[in-house]
Amino acid sequence: MTVIRVDSAAGRLRFGGINMACTLGRGGPCAADGKREGDGCTPLGTWPLRGVLLRPGRIEAKGIRLPWRWVREGDGWSDDPADPSYNRPVHLPRPFSAEALLRDDDAYDVIVVLGHNDAPPVPGRGSAIFLHLSEGRPTAGCVAVDRQDMLKLLPLLSPGDVMEIA
């Protein structure tokens, strides 16, 4: 197991010899047990890397060792605490609120799914906490890095690796 370390105060992500800038949630860091849906906070703690979602035509899958798949039309992630599929991948449209994974911007060209609040999900304690591409502004609670940094990092990640946000 290798640890990706995120220094929330410095806005830095470190992995092996790599040291890069990262962006966190607009609400800043928060204790994981204080995380609430929609608060914009990035939860402190150690989260397993569950897998990678890639947008077709935007990125190559070469060298990726984590489990991965292409994002398809209708892919979403439930963010509705009333949804029985809360904090899980879902198909859109659906009767509950969910975030579309095919977005108009580039942020979700690469999504590394973090294992926050997923074993099992507790409704309202935060959903869709990802490592994704930076759009030059704070995230909704995720960790984001520049595209070139993500392309360096992605092939180095392996099953069993974790992200420690401190």
UniProtKB/TrEMBL annotation:
Q: Which InterPro entries match?
A: LD_TPept_cat_dom
Give the Pfam families listed for this entry: YkuD
Domain L,D-TPase catalytic, by residue range, is: 1-166
What pathway does this protein act in?
Answer: Cell wall biogenesis; peptidoglycan biosynthesis
Q: Which PROSITE patterns match?
A: LD_TPASE
Q: Which UniProt keywords apply?
A: Cell shape, Cell wall biogenesis/degradation, Peptidoglycan synthesis
Q: Where is the active site?
A: H132 (proton donor/acceptor), C142 (nucleophile)
Keyword Glycosyltransferase in annotation: no
Name of this protein: L,D-transpeptidase
